[in-house]
Amino acid sequence: MSQRQDDQRNLLIAVVLSVAVMLGWQLFYVGPQVKEHQEKQQRERVAEQQAEQKASRDAAQPGVARPSVGPGTQTALPVRPAGTRAEALGLSARLPIETPSITGSISLKGGLVDDIVLQNYRETVDPKSPHVVLFSPLGSPNAYFAEYGWQGAPGSQIALPDSETVWQAEANAKLTPQTPVTLTWVNGQGMVFKRTLAIDEHYMLTVTNAVENTTSGDVVLTPYARLYRFGTPRIEGFFIMHEGLIGVPGDAGLQEITYADVLEDGGGRSFDGKTGGWLGITDKYWAAALIPDQKQTYAGSFRGQRPAGPGSQEVFWTDYQQSPVIVSAGTTQTIEGHLFAGAKQVRKIEEYEANLGIEKFELLVDWGWFYFITKPLFYLLDWLYRLLGNFGLAIIGVTVLVKIAFFPLSNKSYVSMAKMKKLQPQMEQLRERYTDDKAKMQQELMELYKKEKINPLAGCLPILVQIPVFFALYKVLFVSIDMRHAPFFGWIQDLSAPDPTSIFNLFGLLPYSVPDFLMLGIWPVIMGITMWLQMQLNPPQPDPIQQKIFNWMPLVFTFLLAGFPAGLVIYWAWNNILSIVQQWYISSKQGVEIHLVDNIKRQFAGLGRLFGRKPKSESKG
């Protein structure tokens, strides 16, 4: 066997071992990790159910913090016993919320905004699956709610509303975009507290707290707002996207703190003397944010607390506290703020930023460091979607437009490759002449490239050019709620999720399920085939080892992209098809004969030689 065949065999062994390591990693490490994670989730659900049952039997449990004099300081907030979310909702009188985008209710006990269901979104692509629940009341599993209130001066004996205060509302009151509601509580000491809530047709509430002083003396009060979340939610855990506490506290810039980090000692953050901005908690597609008066000074914080005992949960919160106000005798003081609670719709968030003057509210959507590519790409996709009516077609349209934008660069690359094909006879002569002196052969090849003004790496350029767009599109598909559950055609019902089919059960024809690490769907296979065909149009690399690496790249990319969003794989496959057409046209224009079929036969023949088989022509000789 020749040295070249040895090199080729070694390369194949290396590639096979690499793939085996990758599959082994998935099978023996990632698979068990996923299984362990699922079992952990199951244990957590069982623990939650046991805790709920225990809570139903007990009178009450000690709970979490609520603000005292400064942000982040704590006093007890009791946990109300409940077995389920429905039972927790039934523990207090409620004022319903009804808009085109959300339904829910406000608890008259505590005046808490603690029940929000998103009407335009469901848990899965199944139209009969439950609507997404954002806020849940205190005492239910994974409670999540907003609280507004007043704090008195140190040593003050004035009764103030808290989480146990029962507010009064007009009979049959309902919070809708057309009908704001007002809650009232009288403390019996000459102070009247009113909380007026208004809501738009989407996800923004306006919360106006007013206090009337009918006594003969002045009263000093400090307004605050706080957003609580009980339990660590199930997160995607991808490095390209932040989930956890988030905000822009004035000039402090964007703050992103993970749930794990905020529970560490010193993991919380405080901000004093800030003006403008917002503080919140974000999921992949949903978020809640406290938005203080953008012209008033406030102190804010992000905090976390570990479970207080058996059956309790960790708690996360963000809050702000505005400067104290003096409520003079016979006067009323009013403080206004906003609460965002809903889906992270890009255009709606930008509209809120512009109309309400919220500083950098657009950063609620995680565009990443390359937002200057990601965000314009989202706008382009959104425009094409409105034009074509399908996000899959919009992705194909983006592919065409990107191809047009980079046409001069790609064209130059393909012209260079076409010239390399013309030089194949001279290159073969050099290889034969310097068979025993590879260094000299490489030197002569480089001189030939220089003389003919050819870039030997031209074949890589089209791939390198599209990588930034590829990752930007990945980011858009991953973080943009507009892509969530967006269908294409046929079996692709969610472009933001991987292709659900697999070649290992013949795309569903065989009656068994396939492990996640073997989910190699139709679109990844199409992408791999088109990538391989495109490689066959390129001239062979000077180094046989490099050429073999290029030959195996499509297989590696096929497995690599199998778990990526289907929309991304469709983009890559369609880009490959356009590249094949473009390269074929340029080669023909340059007078280079295209031997695609011969190249394919040569690849299969080379594969046969690697396994010790000789082509028929050699066997007969």
UniProtKB/TrEMBL annotation:
Could you tell me which InterPro entries the record lists for this protein? Membr_insert_YidC (IPR019998), Membr_insert_YidC_N (IPR028053), YidC/ALB3/OXA1/COX18 (IPR001708), YidC/Oxa/ALB_C (IPR028055), YidC_ALB_C (IPR047196), YidC_periplasmic_sf (IPR038221)
Segments forming domain Membrane insertase YidC/Oxa/ALB C-terminal: 391-587
Entry's transmembrane regions: 12-31, 383-409, 454-474, 517-537, 549-574
A Pfam family that this protein carries is 60KD_IMP
Q: Which CDD domains match?
A: 5TM_YidC_Alb3 (cd20070), EcYidC-like_peri (cd19961)
- Give the start-end ranges of region Disordered: 39-80
The protein's predominant localisation is membrane
One Gene Ontology term of the biological-process aspect is: protein transport
Q: Where in the cell is it found?
A: Cell inner membrane; Cell membrane
- All copies of the Membrane insertase YidC N-terminal domain together span 94-380
UniProt keywords (A-Z) are: Cell membrane, Chaperone, Membrane, Protein transport, Transmembrane, Transmembrane helix, Transport
**Gene Ontology molecular-function annotations:** membrane insertase activity
Q: Which domain of life is it from?
A: Bacteria
The membrane topology term of the UniProt record is:
Multi-pass membrane protein
State the GO CC annotations.
plasma membrane
Q: What does the record give as the function of this protein?
A: Required for the insertion and/or proper folding and/or complex formation of integral membrane proteins into the membrane. Involved in integration of membrane proteins that insert both dependently and independently of the Sec translocase complex, as well as at least some lipoproteins. Aids folding of multispanning membrane proteins.
What is known about its subunit structure? Interacts with the Sec translocase complex via SecD. Specifically interacts with transmembrane segments of nascent integral membrane proteins during membrane integration.
Question: Would you identify the family this protein belongs to, as annotated?
Answer: Belongs to the OXA1/ALB3/YidC family. Type 1 subfamily.
Name of the protein in its database record: Membrane protein insertase YidC
Specify the species.
Hyphomicrobium nitrativorans NL23
